[in-house]
Structure to design on (821 residues):
């Protein structure tokens, strides 16, 4: 059936897409050009591997953030969840086998997401406020769990995940790309995924269509917590240490990636592919500025301006 | 310049992307005239009025007011020229008071800093009482008002600075009969004081009652301007749709069968109580009532959107408990809500997504969506309803009002309901699309669906229904056969007026 749809019809379906929807591709190409001009080391395989590793943390968090933003919400607690789950996955290796420690960390992320989703869906509280509260609570719990940095006991933790390779590609990057694919399938090809996308557009219409809105909201925040937990595990595995102070401000980078990729705070726009580009763009910018030893203050200024430009290019007349 | 051509719009053109909204539109109107603008949805009425109120800049053309050509590129400029518009969508700030909304941008103050609240309130009160609404407290927050009172505030806002040209875009949609009468007397007073009133409405009855002259638009062009006294409703419809509408309310040939929906002693605290009625297979039961009579609340509680607090509901003879829309959809009950923008459509999503929304579980293997099957099912309904869209992937935002309403209907037809609750299904829809919707209701009914048709338009209720229920103040006050009902009886029941002798 699908193949029978003529190409022209498919073109017509997408005819409404404006050039500005592809702004992120343009920005990326420009960035790559600049990079190759100003930096001799940019296109070395060492540097490219570096970038692909560094974007994993923001990539995974952004996947969860995308789902939440699509429902019309936001999750500010992801940075704290990264810290909690990183330190759990690392620290718990003293008491249990490494895979079990990772599992506990992931469950902890799901628990944070469940708490967020429960308060937001059940009591109709504002996501901003609820996740602002859990952001503080989870950060506190992290410090209660461990005030000091934790180093992994099991050497396989670093070797397999953060330091491992599949062919020439870092394992962590492969995991991230798979996650992006999975979330694309979820959002575009599954029934709960379509419901999530619709909720951000008009929650009441979705409820009146006989769809369980609360359940889908809960699901969205659980996914967000889960991906943040994965990000925490992989980050501590890459660095070989977990700090209770990890992840401060990570929520902003994730929101930025989603928004650069076409996401709209409040729902009604955004997707997996766009978010992927958003993550790449932010990753390349960080890399470039780091190579030039630009102070992190300037990095923040430049990132902020790029977010503004992305939003401006897509604004309605 | 002579006063019989106070406003003249000449050769106005306007394109939106690929569609021509206005093509060589010229019209003129004079001071002290009530000039109606009619036409199907998408005919260009609202665009033309947006041009006049500065919200839309035309591609070419001239506007002459009082003999002088004017340029308007912002609503602010239009305001300064004395042009005021009351749009279908309200421009009120809900959490501010009535007074603040009415006097938005010109609160009485000293030095541009200190607000004189007492003066503001008394100014607002003066305007409101001029409208006949002395009971409204200017200190009330707008969010606490009913929709019809919000409409009143919107009109008051337009009148705060005496306009030379007042544009009313579908002002009657949310007004009750009494409120409409008040509005009409106000419009006549403005006319007498030398204001030009431009009145847009779908309801031809109103247009005939209030307008001096009527300009008809079709497909972005002017069909003609006629004095009201020289045309009949049929003439006007023919001008609007370009063809004669023989039967606005088509007949059905199927006799009703067994009960599909039975409602007993249904009640919801503070909204309605002891509502008992039934709908049979192949039957259209009309429900008439004034704004606030509880008719919408009854439909929403049957659908489980705001569940009933007492009473029983059974579908096809089986008692059901409908505590959420999900329960209702599973039981075969569907509701087309009265406000498609607010709770009927997901504007950011495509036609395909919107039509699928209530039938998603049927469109997949387990959790996964079968997009090919989805497309086939959606296309079938889109074709059956003749929804005019370039592609299923188009956002519903790009569709006209009538086509948006068809998308809502397609969504519920796809869910294969046994009982279809329709709350104002033709609100804000042009006559051509209305007739299509009536035909659709009939073909549904002929397949054995039971329909509850809620409407505030009496001709619609009388024309479409087999039986008619009348609601007043949360109670069912009439259950009439089509043969014994007429407009007068319905209104008496709905308003609670007992007509004795020849008095009205």
């Amino acid at each position: 059936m699908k193949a029978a749809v003529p190409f022209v019809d498919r073109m017509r379906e997408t005819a409404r897409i404006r050039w500005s929807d592809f702004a992120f591709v343009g920005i990326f190409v420009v960035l790559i050009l600049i990079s190759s001009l100003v930096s001799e080391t940019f296109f070395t395989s060492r540097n490219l591997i570096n970038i692909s590793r560094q974007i994993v943390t923001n990539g995974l968090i952004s996947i969860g953030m995308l789902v939440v933003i699509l429902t019309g919400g936001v999750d500010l607690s992801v940075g704290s969840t990264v810290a909690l789950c990183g330190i759990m996955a690392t620290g718990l290796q003293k008491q249990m086998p490494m895979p079990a420690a990772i599992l506990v960390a992931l469950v902890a992320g799901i628990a944070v997401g469940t708490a967020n989703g429960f308060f937001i869906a059940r009591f109709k509280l504002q996501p901003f406020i609820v996740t602002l509260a859990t952001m503080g609570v989870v950060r506190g719990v992290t410090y209660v769990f461990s005030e000091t940095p934790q180093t992994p006991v099991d050497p396989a933790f670093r070797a397999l995940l953060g330091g491992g390779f599949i062919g020439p590609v870092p394992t962590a990057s492969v995991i991230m790309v798979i996650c992006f694919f999975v979330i694309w399938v979820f959002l575009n090809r599954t029934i709960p995924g379509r419901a999530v996308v619709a909720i951000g557009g008009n929650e009441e219409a979705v409820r009146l269509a006989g769809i369980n809105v609360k359940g889908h909201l809960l699901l969205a925040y659980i996914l967000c917590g889960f991906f943040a937990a994965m990000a925490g595990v992989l980050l501590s595995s890459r660095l070989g240490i977990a700090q209770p102070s990890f992840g401060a401000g990570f929520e902003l980078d994730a929101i930025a990636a989603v928004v650069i990729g076409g996401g709209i705070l409040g729902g009604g726009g955004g997707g997996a592919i766009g978010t992927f580009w958003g993550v790449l763009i932010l990753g390349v910018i960080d890399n470039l500025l780091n190579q030039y030893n630009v102070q992190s203050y300037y990095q923040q200024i430049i990132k902020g301006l790029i977010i503004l430009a992305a939003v401006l290019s897509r604004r309605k007349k | 310049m002579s006063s019989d051509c106070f406003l003249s719009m000449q050769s106005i053109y306007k394109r939106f992307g690929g569609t021509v909204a206005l093509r060589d539109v010229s019209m003129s109107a004079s001071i002290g005239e009530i000039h109606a603008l009619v036409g199907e949805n998408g005919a260009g009425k609202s665009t033309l009025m947006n041009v006049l109120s500065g919200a839309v800049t035309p591609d070419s053309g001239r506007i002459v007011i009082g003999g002088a050509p004017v340029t308007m590129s912002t609503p602010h400029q239009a305001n300064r020229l004395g042009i005021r518009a009351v749009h279908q969508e309200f421009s009120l700030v809900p959490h501010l008071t009535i007074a603040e909304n009415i006097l938005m941008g010109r609160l009485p103050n000293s030095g541009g800093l200190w607000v004189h609240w007492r003066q503001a309130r008394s100014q607002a009160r003066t305007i409101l009482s001029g409208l006949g609404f002395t009971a409204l407290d200017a200190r009330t927050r707008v969010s606490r008002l009913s929709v019809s009172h919000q409409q009143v505030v919107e009109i008051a806002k337009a009148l705060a600075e005496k306009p030379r040209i007042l544009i009313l875009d579908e002002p009657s949609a949310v007004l009750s009969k009494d409120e409409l009468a008040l509005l009409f007397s106000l419009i006549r007073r403005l006319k007498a004081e030398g204001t030009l009133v431009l009145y847009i409405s779908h309801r031809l009855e109103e247009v005939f009652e209030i307008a001096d002259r009527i300009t008809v638009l079709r497909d972005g062009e002017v069909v003609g301007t006629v004095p009201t006294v020289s045309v009949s409703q049929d003439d006007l419809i023919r001008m609007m749709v370009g063809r004669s509408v023989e039967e606005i309310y088509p007949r059905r040939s199927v006799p009703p069968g067994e009960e599909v929906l039975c409602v007993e002693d249904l009640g919801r605290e503070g909204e309605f109580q002891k509502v008992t009625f039934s709908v049979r297979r192949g039957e259209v039961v009309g429900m008439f009532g004034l704004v606030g009579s509880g008719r919408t609340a009854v439909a929403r509680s049957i659908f489980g959107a705001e569940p009933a607090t007492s009473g029983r509901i059974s579908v096809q003879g089986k008692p059901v408990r409908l505590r959420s829309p999900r329960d209702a959809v599973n039981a075969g009950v569907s509701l087309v809500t009265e406000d498609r923008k607010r709770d009927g459509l997901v504007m950011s999503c495509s036609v395909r997504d919107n039509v699928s929304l209530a039938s998603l579980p049927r469109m997949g293997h387990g959790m996964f969506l079968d997009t090919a099957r989805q497309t086939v099912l959606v296309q079938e309904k889109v074709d059956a309803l003749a929804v005019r869209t370039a592609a299923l992937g188009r956002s519903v935002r790009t569709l006209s009002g009538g086509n948006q309403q068809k998308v809502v209907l397609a969504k519920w037809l796809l869910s294969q309901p046994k009982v279809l609750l329709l709350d104002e299904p033709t609100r804000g829809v042009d006559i051509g699309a209305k007739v299509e919707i009536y035909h659709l209701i009939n073909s549904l009914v002929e397949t054995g669906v039971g329909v509850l048709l809620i409407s505030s338009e009496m001709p619609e209720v009388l024309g479409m229904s087999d039986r008619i229920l009348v609601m007043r103040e949360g109670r069912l006050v009439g259950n009439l056969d089509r043969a014994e009902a007429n407009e007068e009886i319905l209104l008496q029941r709905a308003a609670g007026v007992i007509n004795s002798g020849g008095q009205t």
